[in-house]
Write a structure and sequence with these properties.
The structure holds 2 protein chains of 2 kinds. Chain A is mostly helical. Chain A has 13 helices and 2 strands, in the order ααααβαβαααααααα. Chain A has a single domain, classed as ABC transporter involved in vitamin B12 uptake, BtuC (Orthogonal Bundle). The longest helix of chain A is centred in the first third of the chain and has 28 residues. Chain B has a two-stranded antiparallel sheet with strand order 1-2. Classes of the chains: A mainly alpha, B mainly alpha. Chain A: This is ABC transporter permease.
Chain lengths: ~300, ~375
């Protein structure tokens, strides 16, 4: 395999966790609630996946446990931001700090223990002969295929269904949506819970597919990169696919350069994804200086139906 | 009260229909109440400890004994108290740094990186200007740490001001960059040649260390921190600039209309915020570890966010909360002998922040009877 193919293959494997997290974030932010807790949710997803898989040995229970825990944390976030109308930035930050602390606490006893199996792969042997496509898609695992299907489903859902229209309405103008009879608070609860499940799944995917042992703080900022990816993708699932794979490639490009044998110390190569994130955000800010960013209009503002005093 | 008139029944008896009205309440934001009462903080901390007790019990330990041991370890011996204060110094300094940024709603979560930048800046003095008396070394170290931390803060502020980049993402990404830079320095060019491969610089000389109190580990950094507390308090409360900061924090649109240059203020505040966290890094390497080494901060920059929040950005409140959280870190170490991971303290920290947010919001609500 030449370098470009290697990079494309690596882009998929390290981009899939980012893709799950970005899709979850898009669902949450489309409903008008900021999602800054992705780092904590991913860490919790990873540690729960590792613990359950080691103790039960069953992938089904593992994924179920991850979804339940992700949903429970989503419920917490929605209670704080939707019902109590707490500051969404601070609530997200609390989620990150609590998730990192709790995952470190829960994961201490399993640190370094390899997981007892791997996610089954779907072998498409007829693709093997095709040069680049074959290398990329012939032996992907089911979670990666699930993420690809999810992109299409999310896109169709948001842009082609009436439920998706309601989702966009509660994110752009909750007061109007409320007048139209859309239960804003209940829908926000639902999307935050589903989105948090997906972000938890992102952590599980990182652990089960990408680096199969638990290490404290193993997401290394990927949750925050996913937060940035939501902005790059302009809250659009199809764009999220390309952005996530681009960052997946950036994540591994340092490693590939090192393999070629470059004189740059590996520490600087590891900085690439973080610096690229800042540079891309700056470029977007410059390019969109006179344009709307595509963000949901009511993002970050709690919705309060007019109350009587 | 549960008896509803059957459908179609017309009640002509007015008083009867009134007594049959369902007793119902609504939960709404009280417009007159802005601040939550002080005891809500204590209630939140207690509830957070109760919630964490579940996880401790799940580990097969008695939570009450664990908390008792943590408290004893942190506050009940001379060693414990000085250790708690030693941990409180970087928390207080980083907390002051983030508090000034939060005052104008700039969400700096990069104190960790700014701390590391400051530590690197201070250590650069020992590497490049080794032979100097203490009276020169310490001030030069402070200058270097302030400049390094300030640059790290500016790197967050410039993209925000000129390219509308969310400062949360930038400051966090820069944390990882700073930590990787630290790893590079202590694993490669600055590594102690006689250190048996330990990832750290050579030990500082006596002239490069902060003086300590007696034979404890409590160092001069405490004085730096308390001086900055007073400066912060005085500036925010009594100067024109502090008034402008409070105005921006209260209402950004009003501040802009009043002719305040918000971009300039964001830049200045972020540089100050980074510089203060940089001093924390400097006081840690010169006062505690006496060398720059791998993993110099056990997450002080992140804990500082909670420290600042729990104190509601008040400088004197920060003194109390940083001691409390310093104690939490020390207590976390002291329960390791019971077979619990020291990350128990980060779990409790996160839970406290959650309950604090909920508590602050709940106390803004009021319960009212409908009708």
């Amino acid at each position: 395999m030449d370098l470009i193919t290697q990079l494309l293959v690596a882009a998929i494997s390290s981009g899939t966790p980012l893709l799950f997290a970005t899709l979850g974030g898009i669902l949450i932010e489309r409903s008008g609630v900021m999602q800054l807790g992705a780092e904590g949710l991913m860490l919790m997803g990873a540690v729960i996946a590792c613990t359950t898989y080691i103790h039960t040995g069953s992938l089904g229970w593992t994924l179920l446990a991850v979804l339940v825990v992700g949903g429970a944390l989503g419920l917490l976030h929605s209670f704080l931001t939707v019902t109590l109308r707490a500051n969404q930035v601070v609530s997200g930050l609390a989620m990150t700090l609590f998730g990192s602390g709790l995952s470190a606490y829960l994961g201490k006893s399993i640190t370094g223990t390899p997981i007892p199996g791997s996610v089954p792969k779907i072998d498409l042997n007829f693709l093997d002969g095709i040069p680049i496509i074959g290398d990329m898609f012939a032996h992907l695992d089911i979670l990666t295929w699930f993420s690809l299907i999810l992109v299409i489903l999310a896109h169709l859902f948001i842009h082609r269904t009436s439920w998706g229209l309601h989702l966009r309405a509660i994110g752009d103008n909750p007061a109007t949506a409320d007048v139209m009879g859309i239960p804003v608070q209940i829908f926000r609860y639902g999307y935050i819970i589903i989105g948090s499940m997906l972000i938890g799944l992102a952590g599980a995917d990182l652990l089960l597919v990408y680096s199969p042992t638990w290490i404290e703080g193993m997401t290394a900022g990927r949750g925050w990169i996913a937060v940035a990816l939501i902005i790059f993708a302009r809250w659009n699932p199809l764009r999220a696919l390309f952005c996530a794979y681009f960052f997946g490639a950036m994540d591994t490009i340092g490693f590939k350069i090192q393999l070629i044998g470059s004189a740059i110390p590996s520490y600087f190569l590891k900085m690439i994804p973080y610096i690229i994130t800042i540079l891309v955000l700056m470029y977007l800010g410059w390019r969109n200086r006179n344009k709307p960013s595509g963000s949901p209009e009511a993002l970050g503002a709690p919705y309060i139906r007019e109350q009587r005093f | 009260m549960s008896e509803q008139p059957a459908a179609g029944t017309v009640s002509l008896d007015k008083t009867a229909s009134e007594t049959r009205r369902r007793l119902s309440f609504r939960f709404e934001i009280d417009p007159a109440r802005k601040e939550s009462p002080w005891w809500m903080t204590i209630v939140s901390i207690v509830l957070a400890l109760l919630a964490c007790a579940i996880f401790i019990a799940a580990n097969g330990k008695n939570p009450w004994l664990v908390y008792e041991k943590m408290f004893r370890g942190a506050f009940m011996s001379e060693f414990g108290i000085t250790e708690t204060l030693v941990k409180a110094i970087p928390l207080l300094l980083c907390g002051l740094g983030v508090a000034i940024a939060y005052r104008i709603s700039v969400w700096n979560i990069g104190a960790e990186g700014q701390f590391v930048a400051g530590a690197i800046g201070a250590t650069a003095v020992t590497v490049y200007l080794p032979e100097m008396p203490m009276s020169l070394t310490i001030p030069i170290m402070i200058v270097f740490a302030v400049v390094a931390g300030g640059i790290w803060g500016a790197l967050t502020a410039l993209p925000k001001v000129y390219f509308q980049v969310n400062e949360l993402i930038t400051s966090l990404m820069l944390n990882y960059v700073a930590l990787l830079l630290l790893d590079y320095l202590v694993f490669d060019p600055w590594k102690d040649p006689k250190g048996f491969n330990f990832p750290g610089t050579p030990m500082f000389t006596d002239a490069q260390m902060l003086p300590v109190l007696g034979d404890t580990r409590l160092h001069l950094g405490l004085v730096f921190a308390l001086v900055i507390v007073l400066i912060y308090w005085f500036t925010v409360k009594y100067t024109r600039w502090g008034y402008e900061l409070r105005l921006i924090g209260a209402n950004q649109d009003a501040a802009r209309n009043a002719g305040i240059n918000i971009k300039k203020h964001i830049l200045i505040v972020m540089v100050i915020s980074g510089a203060v966290a940089g001093i924390a890094g400097m006081s840690e390497v010169t006062g505690v570890t006496h060398r720059l080494m791998y993993g110099i901060s056990p997450g002080y920059g992140y804990t500082a966010i909670i420290v600042a929040w729990i104190a509601k950005l008040n400088p004197f409140g920060l003194v109390i909360s940083s001691v409390l959280f310093g104690g939490l870190i020390v207590g976390g170490y002291s329960v390791q002998t019971m077979g619990l991971p020291s990350s128990i303290s980060s779990m409790i920290q996160g839970a406290i922040l959650f309950f604090l947010i909920a508590g602050n919001m709940i106390s803004k609500f009021r319960l009212r009877r409908n009708g």
